Amino acid sequence: MSLIDHWEKQIESIGVNERKYISSQVNTIGVGVVRDFCNDALLYEARQIWRKVEPLVVRRDVTIKHEVTSKRIMGTASALQIDNMTREIFELYTLDVFVQFMAEITGTDICLLNDNLERYVFNFLSHKGDMHGLHVDSFSYSCSLVIYAPSTNSGGVLQVAKNYTCFDKDKVASIIAEPGDLIVLSSSKFPHRVSPLKQNSQRVVLNMAFTTEATKNHLSYSRESLYS
Ligand SMILES: [Fe+2]
């Protein structure tokens, strides 16, 4: 079976009740997780693709100002770079079953992003101090496949809050992700970050962006500094 076949099968295996629960989480606290979304074969296939793309990763250390000022210290690979190595991520991103799943979870008419750099990306935290600083995204939703997760107590935790003030008060939802988890995030409404790595470790996610008809042609404020 190919990566796409595995992907389709795993999406279809998410039951009605789990979908309802994840949808309610996404719409109330901003984030919902399909735990153990990947079976061993799918995680293996995803890691094989990551291995192809990894040599293209560019290390970034930038400060971005948009609503708040925050840092991104991490490696990235853009959709353009991914497409140069494999068409499988494009096929996975555009799969009807997947887009319908995202529409069901978010309760909206979902559109794919018309951005050849940022519609799907790999984000890679590896060194002590690496972080994906606090921000909201220009696109409405993201769906992230966790390919490698940092070891326990190494930081690199996804944190999501209802607004920036909640972050000041530590009222955040912290997601300790495991390899193979699928994370759906209401990424334009809920400020979020990945906390700094406390030691060298590996956090690799394939992040896929979804948005609405009205914003599908918008280009994000961070695409040039993170993905070009
Ligand atoms: Fe984000």
Explain the layout of strands and helices.
Blueprint (H helix, E strand, L loop, with lengths): L2 H10 L3 H13 L2 E4 L5 H14 L4 E9 L1 E10 L1 H7 L2 H6 L2 H11 L4 E2 L7 E6 L5 E5 L5 E8 L9 E3 L3 H5 L4 E3 L6 E4 L6 E3 L8 E9 L11 H5 L1
Antiparallel strand pairs: 1-10, 2-3, 3-5, 3-6, 4-12, 5-12, 6-11, 7-10, 7-12, 8-9, 8-11
Helix pairs in contact: 2-6
Bound molecules: fe (ii) ion.
What does the main sheet amount to?
Answer: 12 strands, antiparallel
What are the bound molecules? fe (ii) ion
The CATH homologous superfamily corresponds to: q2cbj1_9rhob like domain
Say what oligomer this is: single chain
Could you tell me the CATH topology label.
Jelly Rolls
Structural class: alpha+beta
State the helical fraction: 25-40%
Number of helices: 8
What's the pLDDT, averaged over the residues? 96
Number of domains: 1
Query: What ranges have pLDDT less than 50 throughout 5 or more consecutive residues?
Result: none
Give a structural overview.
This protein is an alpha+beta fold and 228 residues long. The protein has eight helices and twelve strands. Strands 1, 2, 3, 4, 5, 6, 7, 8, 9, 10, 11 and 12 form a twelve-stranded antiparallel beta sheet that branches. A hairpin with a 1-residue loop joins strand 2 (58-66) and strand 3 (68-77). It is globular, with a radius of gyration of 16 Å. The chain starts with a helix and ends with a helix. The protein binds fe (ii) ion.
Produce a short descriptive summary.
This protein is of the alpha+beta class. It has helices at residues 3-12, 16-28, 40-53, 79-85, 88-93, 96-106, 164-168, 223-227, and strands at residues 31-34, 58-66, 68-77, 111-112, 120-125, 131-135, 141-148, 158-160, 173-175, 182-185, 192-194, 203-211. The protein contains 8 helices and 12 strands.
